[in-house]
Amino acid sequence: MQTLYSILSVPESADLIEIKTAYKRLAKKYHPDVNSDPKAEAIFKDVLNAYQILSNPETKKIYDDRLRYQRYQSEVRKQQGRNTQSRKFVRPTPRYRPPNPFSKNGRKLTPEENRKATMYAFGFVMAIFLVVVMAKIGYDWYQEYLFEKKLEPIVMAMDTAMKYDSPESYTALFTAFSSVPEKDRLSINWEWRRTEALKYLAQRADFHFEEQNYSKAYQLYTMYLNQGGLFLIRIGNNMITCMQAVGDREDLIAALERVANADTDGVTVAYKTGKVYLEDVKDTTKALFYFRLARNRIEKSYEQIYGKAWFVLIPPRNVPDLHAEVYLNYGALLFQKEYYTRARKVFSWLIYIRNLSPYGYLYRGYCYLEQENPTAACRDFQKAATLGSQEAYEVYKNMCL
Question: Nearest CA to 201 among 176, 179, 228?
Fold first, then answer.
């Protein structure tokens, strides 16, 4: 027979400390916030009910009395069953009746006394049942009241955010989340509710982006990321578009850097970031960093397709114009910083993938010139001039003829 003690896995002699310890152990295992299995929820309800009764000395005493009586009744029924089975074969013997723990001095009860005792026990059990039901209803009501009280600031802030849809209202919403004490967060599903609020914030940012309200969209995207929202390349690209439309250079650079560093395979944004640093900010060191980052990602993609010997196997016609632009700008910056050997190698690769463009020959000629190799320089200037570079023609005419 399952008892409240067996539900908590404690002996019937367990004291209050053992009962509380067993309840905490089972609650950690079967609480709905920890275990989403529907069976776990049913087990937790049984555990909670057992704990509520056994942790209260008065209800525990009532339950113990009822349990003893139930066992007494069970023993009586078993003995009656045995007597019935043996009556056909043996001479009737005086029936054994276990001593009634509710009788006085173990005296045998008369039928009338037995009927009254049964009615008393039934009324006693019903009284216990009503007390338990009322206690459960009261407990559930109080728990719901506490739940709503803890959740009230978040609900009010969420309603305000949905009504006004402003950065200030969303700031107030996440402030309300932060104000919830750590000890109360599990009981109100704090993590899940905050994640849902972040999803809603991202949806509103997307809405304003689609409506071309770029300034507000950028504010909401920024708040979403600052509050721990998941960074997606799509969001980063939207932020770049917002800042390009608004014209805020600092925020544009911040958005570009965030996407360039997050998108580990992306070339376009890394290249754009380098161009902004080169042309707008005039920071050649940062520009060189992002051009190099774009170059590394290009060559990583080549290696994934063609293997480690990609530089031999890749057909020039398969190289996109963007990749050629990356190599041209990367080489030009290396040349500007006087890394002539490295720059010359970059321009040699550019000549291989774009042999009809004069720029690779022109800049490699300058590298040879700085390295005091005029013969090779003149050869490259002549080739660049043949391909239509007026600058190469002037240099070749003045230095090589």
Answer: 228
Q: What confidence score (pLDDT) does residue 294 get?
A: 93
String of b and e for 161-175 (b: at least 16 CB within 10 Å)?
beeeeeeebbebbbe
Helices within 247-357 (DSSP H only): 249-262, 268-276, 284-306, 310-313, 321-336, 340-353
Cβ burial of 209 (10 Å; 0-12, 13-18, 19+) is buried
The answer for 230, left when phi > 0, alpha when psi is -120 to 50, beta otherwise, is beta
CATH fold for the domain made of 4-151: Helix Hairpins (1.10.287)
Tell me the C-alpha distance between 268 and 263, whole Å: 10
Question: Residue 391 above 90 pLDDT?
Answer: yes
**Max CA distance (Å), the chain:** 141
Within its chain, how far is the Cα of 114 from the centroid? 65
* Span 295-337, pLDDT tens digits: 999 999 999 999 999 888 889 988 999 999 999 999 999 999 9
In the chain, domain spans: 4-151
Give every CB contact of residue 6 below 8 A, 6+ residues apart in sequence: none
Q: What is the pLDDT of residues 339-368, one digit of tens each?
A: 999 999 999 999 999 988 999 999 999 999
Q: Report if pTM > 0.70.
A: no
